[in-house]
Amino acid sequence: MSLTVVGSVAFDALETPFGKRDKILGGAATHFGLSASFFTQVNAVGVVGGDFGDEEWAVFKRHNINTDDIQIVPDGKTFFWKGRYEYDMNVAHTLDTQLNVFETFAPKLSENSKSAKFLFLANILPALQKQVRQQVPDAEFVALDTMNLWLEIMKDDVIETIKMVDCIIINDAEARQLTEEPNLHKAAKKIMDYGLRAVVIKRGEYGATLFTKDGYFAVPAYPLESVFDPTGAGDTFAGGFMGYLAAHKEVTDATLRRAMVYGSVMASFNVEKFGTERVDALDYPEINERFKAFKTMTHFDDIPFERATTA
Amino acid sequence: MSLTVVGSVAFDALETPFGKRDKILGGAATHFGLSASFFTQVNAVGVVGGDFGDEEWAVFKRHNINTDDIQIVPDGKTFFWKGRYEYDMNVAHTLDTQLNVFETFAPKLSENSKSAKFLFLANILPALQKQVRQQVPDAEFVALDTMNLWLEIMKDDVIETIKMVDCIIINDAEARQLTEEPNLHKAAKKIMDYGLRAVVIKRGEYGATLFTKDGYFAVPAYPLESVFDPTGAGDTFAGGFMGYLAAHKEVTDATLRRAMVYGSVMASFNVEKFGTERVDALDYPEINERFKAFKTMTHFDDIPFERATTA
Asked: Which CATH class is domain A3-298?
């Protein structure tokens, strides 16, 4: 089933201890869409400026992403973010943010995008997320991301929007900030109480956890010896997660769990090179090989201890 | 097979946001021994003062721990540690440390303790760990713990001792400090190069990871809504890990993985009450029920994604 994503399409300038790029394709909808495209058909909704070139469009085309709803403002400039990472890749230092055409972004969904059964509201203004949610009334499974800034200045709006979706995909600091609850498990329960089916909490190098009504699932991060560029890892995770779900008839506990693993698989590739470079070049055997690696690194035999028979 | 542990036996004074205790049984050998005693026969090697009373000895007796090698210094006082935890339970604030009889601790192993096939060198001076290791030449599997202080002031001694054992069980900060390598996976590889069979890295609320020559295994922490007192969690983990291994004929990749889970199970109980209170009162059905919970919370079906057949 098709999947619509609404979010930023951007140019990023990045500095990491391993190198730098002055202007590469980025943005939440980009990373999400690319990742999800390996699993299902993706419609991207966003806005770019006249500086968005053939090379950038080609990335979307290569992955069969429908870009009809990416508005082009010919005399505007594409959203630009400049960031630096130190050796501690968990922390991004923002050097520059130019919203440009993104500042007045008013998502318009075509009939095609509106008919999607799966919808991801990437991190944009809560009011815009809400407006998009209302344009896709028949969606079967809707997830959203948010950010610390909205939680700081308009938490009520964020909560109102959360109540209109099925799933939230945020990081641990955001979960704590949203609920003012330091314990992650209590925080997740509080968020579930907004009426969600699933709460996904991303924990960077420590993996990710899924809370549902009856269950708890934890998946570690893939053991990478070097993280090259973490930009977009969270959106790439969400893309793998939502894309995998959209590829299946029903959202069940079992598909949610495998979606968590495929999300982790995609995120682990994303950080291996700058920007979209690695995911852009992925193939299915690589993806499934890493899925298998996740199984291997988490498996243990379900043999309860019996003192009498051992010793 | 029997298991010998050398380490501190102590009184702790603890303050957490949930309550306080002025003088309760603690120490690495205590927490380790109690935890391991559910899986195998344990010999404890340590030293206490004349203030160590019937109530304390009774805890060891209840779990059939051999205390013949716990020396008693009648006119001395038992090692005393006072600590406080804030809501962030990952950080212990030491308020007072009185080494007392522990300051001149010279471990003496009886023939019984020396004949153990499994040996755990809890966090004591590296030179003492080395000396104990040499007293148990026929041990089949020896593990050690250490601490930031020794890594700071006598790293060479720590490394020399590591080279004499099969396994190290430390936390992530210690692994980074030991190797001066921020990436945990690179750090683990560097430690493996000292000739170890296994490197176990404890990550508190994020679980624990096992590195072996050919494999990597990660287990999350049990999702606790409240951590009451984290004191001794690491030693309780090590006790479950080593005790489980000692209960089996051979140390294999499969038993190491299950040992990681049983270590995590025991640690998850330890933090639910003050000091040894919870583990002291455990029974096998509880232990195996939580083991099963770890299986449930990490399991996913090993079904590779095939785009053609889904959609």
From this structure: alpha beta
Pick from A263, A168, A175: nearest CA to A219: A263
C-alpha to C-alpha distance for A265 and A244, rounded to whole angstroms: 11
Closest C-alpha to B209, from B179, B178, B235, B187:
B187
ipTM above 0.90, yes or no: yes
Domain ranges of chain B: 3-298
Closest partner residue to A218 among B258, B262, B298, by Cβ?
A: B298
Separation of alpha carbons B16 and B18, rounded Å = 5
Span A63-97, pLDDT tens digits: 999 999 999 999 999 999 999 998 777 778 999 99
**pLDDT at residue A17, as a whole number:** 85
Identify all chain B residues contacting A185, using CB atoms and an 8 Å cutoff: 223-225
A114 part of contact set with chain B, CB < 8 Å: no
Give A247's contacts in chain B (Cβ within 8 Å): 305, 307, 310-311
Answer whether A226 touches B (CB < 8 Å): yes
> In this structure, how many other beta carbons lie within 10 angstroms of the beta carbon of residue A295?
15
- A261 contact B CB<8A: yes
Pair B234, B264: CB distance under 8 Å:
no
Which chain B residues in 9-48 lie under 8 Å from chain A, judged by CB atoms? 38-40
